[in-house]
Design a protein that fits this description.
The protein is of the alpha+beta class. 34% of the residues lie in helices and 17% in strands. It has 10 helices and 9 strands. Strand 1 and strand 2 form a beta hairpin. Helix 2 packs antiparallel against helix 3. The chain is globular and about 60 Å long.
Length: 343
Amino acid sequence: MARVTTLVPRDERTGPDVEADKRPASHRQACIGRLNIDLINLDQPFARSWKRVSNVRDASYVLIFPLTGCVAYSQDGRIGIARAGEYILLSELAFYELSSDRNTRLLLVRIPATELRGRLVSIEDHISRRFEPNQQMTRLLSGMIGNIAELFIDAPPPNPQALATEIIGFVALTIGSEDRGAATDVRNARYHLRRRIIDFIEAHLSDQTLSPTKIAANSRISLSYLYSLFSDNETTVVQFVQVKRLQRAYEILVADPKGHRTVSEVAYEVGFKNVSHFSRSFSRHFKIAPRDIRQVNNAFGPEAHVKPRRLETVPASKTPPPLGGNLGSAYWETSKRPLHETV
């Protein structure tokens, strides 16, 4: 199991007897379904490191927003600094480090790795700020997540799993809007082929005969090469198609609160051959039965529609101390809960 190994003041590390529970000035945490959201206000420098998780089903992606101040990061040989109005996406599947100077406010979101991989097959291309974020989408996303955390920090929302699904969807949308510019490391045949395959899958979800063989034939590639494209993200073609079908079903059901279409009709519409299998898979993935999901819009109410905050800017000269050094022991251990299946 991975754990936070460091989040302590840099200048107060004295040795193995340092207090393990020393916390930053203010640290609050909200749990929204399968998401963990941390709001951290710092009045002194800090450092954090994360040991690699070996199993993707036990891992998360960490989305970090500096609301004020700035934060330095390092993962897989890539280093950089993010300031207010930006974000960093890091992976627990590889060791990473964060550090910051005092007077920094951070918003950290931990998202199960299987969730983002089911939505963005190219998610690893976005780790460690390889591309420039879309400023408008970033501002909207950080404001939305920050306000949701503030609203539900003491009590969960009416339907936390459904709300978590909506947040993850917007995170994927924001990451997908990044400007790749002239980057050449993803402008290759493998990347574009993968995108064409995903577009084909999304356009043919209602086809109950959609199979790896049919997908490979449409792309004029071998089955083994198709499997390799998806094994890059430790998933299978069948798993990816099923997650896409469940997400499409979720969207249809939420958009139909009066039940003009039955659950059976929706199941067949998104390509499931068996309604019982659809209901079990849906309930396992979203932690709510498909027959109950129609109430989501009414359950949240108007208070769920929050306005994004205006993020403060940070002078360019305000930079955190360099990464590395003698880091301390953990101030908190992240409790791990088994992730839901996506197959």
